[in-house]
Amino acid sequence: MTESIWTQLATPLRPGKTYRFSVLLALADSSVFTSQYLTPVLSKVPFNRVGKRETGQALLLHTAAVDTAWREVSVTFTATDRWAYLSLGLSREVFTLKAYKDRLTRRRTGVANQGEAVAYYYVDEVELLESK
Fold it and tell me: Measured at the alpha carbon of residue 67, what is the angle toward residues 94 and 123, in degrees to the nearest 5?
């Protein structure tokens, strides 16, 4: 993970069970990039803050935030292990997935940025629930 937020889950996920991850997402006014690489990642251990790679399950979001309007983005998935931690951020690992290579992160038009190109997001109402 590069920049991210993470939390320990109340209880570990159960392998083979179906879950739904959702979050309200909006781009900040100054975000030069869209959210196509913003990735939820599940892990068994707390996320390493020094850039070491962890074993986990990356989830591909179905919708990207492309402007400053709030929108729900979600994914339904089957847990592959007893994941105990959830992170949401800009993942280095997901860049290797073909589905994301085929739709590269897009620059927003009309957004001026002084200095380094950045991606800033607002998140709210993060949910990870077992599907019924």
Answer: 60
Higher pLDDT residue, 41 or 103? 41
- Rounded to 5 degrees, what are φ and ψ at 122? -110, 135
**Separation of first and last alpha carbons in the chain:** 30
Q: Measured in whole angstroms, how far is the alpha carbon of residue 110 from the centre of its chain? A: 25
* Cα radius of gyration (the chain): 15
DSSP tag of 100: H
pLDDT tens-digit series, residues 74-107: 899 999 999 999 988 865 555 444 444 444 445 5
CA-closest candidate to residue 45, choices 82, 90, 95: 82
Nearest Cα residue to 94 out of 56, 37, 53: 37
Give this prediction's pTM. 0.75
Share of the chain above pLDDT 90, in %: 29
Instruction: Give the SS3 label for residue 40.
Output: strand
Dig out the tokens for 123 from the structure: 């998140």
DSSP assigned state of 35: S
